[in-house]
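Contributing: when you submit paired examples, paste them exactly as shown. First protein:
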Amino acid sequence: MKKYSTVKPKQHSLSLNSTVKTTAEIFIDGASRGNPGSSGLGVLIKDEDGNIHEIKRPLGILTNNQAEYEALLTALTKAKELKKSHLKIYTDSLLLANQINGKWRVNNPKITTLYNKARELIAQFERVEVNHIPREFNQEADRLANLAIDEYS
């Protein structure tokens, strides 16, 4: 297995190239209480103008990995609506990051469907980076995902 590096994003400031006005930094998380269990997603989008978009949504009964993919799909859809073309996506799901980056195969049929949808959406952007980060650097997206579960369970 290849050694995988992690990226520590800045917590309260954008590290984006200010000359590119279509860039967004996105933190995603899917959570499930039980596997499968009640699940939700959280997405935090920061753009180059300092705008912050928070999304939280309950997902019903899903596995944690399905919830992670749903968070990615939601983030990509919202970024498209916001007309962003360059995305830096951060997730604490090593599975999702490695599958999207082509390092790990997708074996689960339910995940394959979500993976294919994600690849189709990613192809619509000029540049998408999906980076794995430790959970402690993804607290806002985690908070949103857990709020979604709490509010709708």
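Second protein:
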Amino acid sequence: MLHGVYGAAVTMDGAARQHEHIAKNLAHAQIPGYRRTQLTQGTFDDSLQETTADLIARSSAGTRGLEESHDFTTGPLEQTDRPLDIAIQGEGFFVIGERDEPLYTRNGSFTIDQQGNIVTKDGRTLQGTNGPMTLPINTVVEDIAVDQSGRVSVNQIELGRIKIVQFEDNEKLVNVGTTLFRNPNESGSEITQLDVQNTRVQQGSLEKSNVHPVQELVELIAVQRRYDAASRTLRTLMRTVEQRINLQRGT
């Protein structure tokens, strides 16, 4: 019976965590480049690989097989016709920030700061293959052109090429903020330069988030029902335990 109580409590805990992730996804559904978060269950093969120590740890932790991860499938493109809205078609990430602590994103909504750097909305510098992407002071935004390989020109004068990198395994990236990711292994061995055969840059467009609100709402209803069912089961089991205790006491 105690196993049933434990199972119901674990189900409620998992449903509550899934509810939090769905709410977060819905809240960020309109942010360009946002990658939805999800909780994944362990596979049958994972269970076969568990050791006795793993089983004991899992039993005490009360969180069976629920691991947070990001869904890196691409989102739909939205044409904005804004010169500094840039989308990546295919694999890869923009490189943001300083060389010693680069961050990575699919959010291609950029602007220009007072020094002429192309920056994100929060002021982080977009990196080119030869350093920060910098434009001449007083550049008119409408004069900026970005071709499909990421080369940036102003009035037909080439100024550099946007750096785009890709990883062998995106799942190893660590989320920083809303649309930024950090590579925990900054050795560089997992980074490769843009493969121009498979990746294109599209100026005047933004990649939207990969959140599908209707799908999230359907999942939200399913999670709520799962939580309610587990809650009813837990209450029933607790009443049974209480009755059993009272019988043993002779009351």
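If you have annotations for the second protein, write them as plain sentences, like these:
DSSP finds four helices and 19 strands in the chain.
The longest strand covers residues 157-161.
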